[in-house]
Write a structure and sequence with these properties.
The protein is an alpha/beta fold. About 40% of the residues lie in helices and about 15% in strands. The chain has one domain: Metal-dependent hydrolases (TIM Barrel, Alpha-Beta Barrel), CATH 3.20.20.140. The chain has 9 helices and 8 strands. Strands 1-2-3-4-5-6-7-8 form an 8-stranded parallel sheet. Helix 3 packs parallel to helix 4, helix 4 crosses helix 5 and helix 8 packs across helix 9. It is globular. The N and C termini lie close together (about 10 Å).
Length: about 260
């Protein structure tokens, strides 16, 4: 059994429909992907994500605003905590810092990140963190705001071994996506091969970042199997072992019901 710890079922297609979501869920089940987490990137689509989680007992939700989404007014700690009260909302995020897609004075990103961390601590639900080209500042904010008290996952990890060590020392897991299968991903391969098994999660981030052999095409939760298979090869472990501990890690981290 596998878990896709990070996907976006609400934006898989240009035209959203519950029928399409159901098809993706069934395709995932056929590939031994028994559970998936549909992750929020903005507040206006959160009701749709919560509806998906309420309709499908193997799909869980999160609530948060992606770091690149510039909005007015800003989301508040109170809004996030209120949304997180639903039992099917198992995390706060995705949140974090992204200096690749945003430029200029990014203090607004750092303030929003702090708001999400505070909300997670109040709601007592883990964080889903997105970091791109911003590991030093992200680690600093996480330390300042005591993110280790609640923990979570740095999803779609793109750092190096030293970055991974700092993340793990802060009580966070590492989420490995299909990027690990790319020829250019030497640092991510090293991280996936060497980090402690109890800190490893797998994901698709679908509809983005399809793994080899589907690179360049739309990604789907079923393809988390390719991520697990590749990591099993890197770690010289049976696929069944990787599937077992990444699944256990997911349910140990998030307040989700099997």
């Amino acid at each position: 059994m596998l878990v896709d710890s990070h996907c976006h079922l609400d934006i898989m297609d240009k035209q959203y429909s519950l029928e399409a979501v159901a098809a993706y869920v069934e395709q995932a089940k056929a590939n031994d992907v028994a559970y998936m987490q549909c992750v929020s990137i903005n507040m206006q689509d959160f009701p749709k994500i919560l509806d998906i989680a309420n309709r499908f007992d193997n799909v869980f939700a999160s609530v948060g605003v992606h770091p690149n989404d510039r909005i007015e007014p800003e989301v508040t700690q109170e809004e996030l905590v209120k949304c997180a009260a639903d039992e099917n909302v198992i995390a706060i995020g995705e949140t974090g810092l992204d200096y690749f897609r945003s430029s200029g004075d990014l203090e607004w990103q750092r303030e929003r990140f702090r708001t999400h961390i505070a909300a997670a601590r109040e709601a007592k639900k883990p964080l889903i963190i997105h970091i791109r080209d911003a590991y030093d500042d992200a680690i600093k904010v996480m330390e300042q705001e005591n993110a280790a008290d609640i923990g979570g996952v740095v999803h779609c990890f793109t750092g190096n071994v030293e970055d991974a060590k700092q993340v793990i020392d802060l009580n966070f897991h590492i989420g490995i996506s299909g990027i690990v299968t790319f020829n250019s991903a030497a640092d991510i391969k090293e991280v996936a091969a060497t980090i402690p098994e109890h800190r490893l999660l797998i994901e698709t981030d679908s509809p983005f970042l399809a793994p080899v052999p589907h690179r360049g095409k739309p990604n789907v939760p079923a393809y988390v199997r390719y991520v697990a298979q590749y990591i099993a090869q890197l770690r010289d472990e049976p696929l069944e072992k990787v599937a077992a501990y990444t699944t256990n890690n997911f349910f140990n981290l998030f307040p989700a019901k099997r």
